[in-house]
Amino acid sequence: MSEPVVTRFAPSPTGFLHIGGARTALFNWLYARAKGGRMLLRIEDTDRERSTQAAIDAILDGLSWLGIDWDGETIYQFARAQRHREVAEALLAAGRAYRCYASPEELAEMRETARREGRSKLYDGRWRDRDPAEAPEGVKPVIRLKAPLDGETVIEDLVQGRVAWQNKDLDDLVLLRSDGTPTYMLAVVVDDHDMAVTHVIRGDDHLTNAARQKHIYDAMGWSVPAFAHIPLIHGPDGAKLSKRHGALGVDAYRAMGYLPAALRNYLVRLGWSHGDQEIFSTEEMIAAFDVARIGRSAARFDFAKLESLNGHYMRNTADAELLAALEDALPYLPGGPEVAAKLDEPLRAKLLAAMPGLKDRAKTLIDLITGAAFVLAERPIPIDDKAKALLTPEARALLAKLADAFEAVEPWSAEALEQTVRAHAEDAGLKLGQVAQPLRAALTGKTTSPGIFDVLVVLGRTESVGRMRDQGHVAAEA
């Protein structure tokens, strides 16, 4: 019976959860769930100067928001430093590692020589087989791995295929620094082994690391996990995704009003495909996902496509569910905290009633707030310049008559209100639009909105008539 699949996501907490990191986490999560396995989370916080609690919180929060959970406790790499040192000492005792006393000046000279000779191998191995009795006094050594000197190191990568390195080109890598702190290479291997990780799914910028890490596994006699190195995400121009392309962190997409399910769906299709299918429920993603379908070329981030996909998710989300998502997002959206402060049950009910018309016109939650401005506005509502142009003296007089008629409309329904407006337009010898447009301006302060009769129903009789009469008062004051 094959061993259970264990994947891991291992971010460094030196900043926000990068969108590329989020996709890596998603791929690990999907593969583990698809295979009935486990995904673990390890925070690689060994860089003590750059690792911060705020970054750790941002990573955990970003994963949770995306709906990516993990199994067991979060593991912190720095707390395991003693275990990493033990492995280095074990390799030393077994003759598979050695103490190196090369000075910084000697190392700089080796690097310069290697560059001059066009060699990728920088360290010349001068302490590899040297008698430790020759060690200079007062120098604290590093511990280096005795890497194989000939032959090749091969990784059968699940995405990249067979990748081979000539061992003569690979250095004896440092396992422990002179101050006794373990290096990233050692810590990663020891942690992955101790966590029983079976599949390492990560960005292809780590591909060269796989060869060096395999040397440590082999030296310890440990089984090597399967590797899957996924191409990085590029911007629309084909260059590696960077600040100049726009939002990089998951938190930024949250603040831009994207739904987590939509972002998750977009990320899964960045470099992975399943026929022509574009829209996936979480269950469909899990059922279909396999690393074999990850492409070898870099995926390009398309902001317009993400926005379109988000619009699809918004239109297909139940009104009450979308309102709940909007409420959850308000602390992060521009102007959201102000909306949250005034959100009581009557306003919630109005927003829910307006949702069908609002979500059809919105691609993000920010669009939804913008569209809902007529619901959120307090009398007298602000009127933009385009809308003001529609509110001529004649239009205001017509609105005053219409307000009187609305007082008596029963029931307060879209159908009954439409009949009333049509009748007034006919009496005045006007087309419906010539009445509906000033009415929209008075009720919403804008020239565009959901259907005007839906707007009237959402606002209710008292608010609608009040806003219309406010325009009469404005005319009188003028």
TrEMBL record:
Residues the entry annotates as binding ATP: K243
Glutamyl/glutaminyl-tRNA synthetase class Ib catalytic domain residues: 5-307
Localization: Cytoplasm
One CC-aspect GO term: cytosol
Entry's transmembrane regions: none
GO annotation terms (biological process): glutamyl-tRNA aminoacylation
EC number(s) stated in the UniProt entry for this protein: 6.1.1.17
Domain called Aminoacyl-tRNA synthetase class I anticodon-binding: residue spans: 327-470
Swiss-Prot/TrEMBL keywords: Aminoacyl-tRNA synthetase, ATP-binding, Cytoplasm, Ligase, Nucleotide-binding, Protein biosynthesis
Motif 'HIGH' region per UniProt: ranges: 11-21
Catalytic activity: tRNA(Glu) + L-glutamate + ATP = L-glutamyl-tRNA(Glu) + AMP + diphosphate
Motif mapping: 'KMSKS' region: 240-244
Broad EC category: ligase
Subunit structure: Monomer.
Functional summary from the UniProt entry: Catalyzes the attachment of glutamate to tRNA(Glu) in a two-step reaction: glutamate is first activated by ATP to form Glu-AMP and then transferred to the acceptor end of tRNA(Glu).
Protein name as annotated: Glutamate--tRNA ligase
Species assigned in the record: Blastochloris tepida
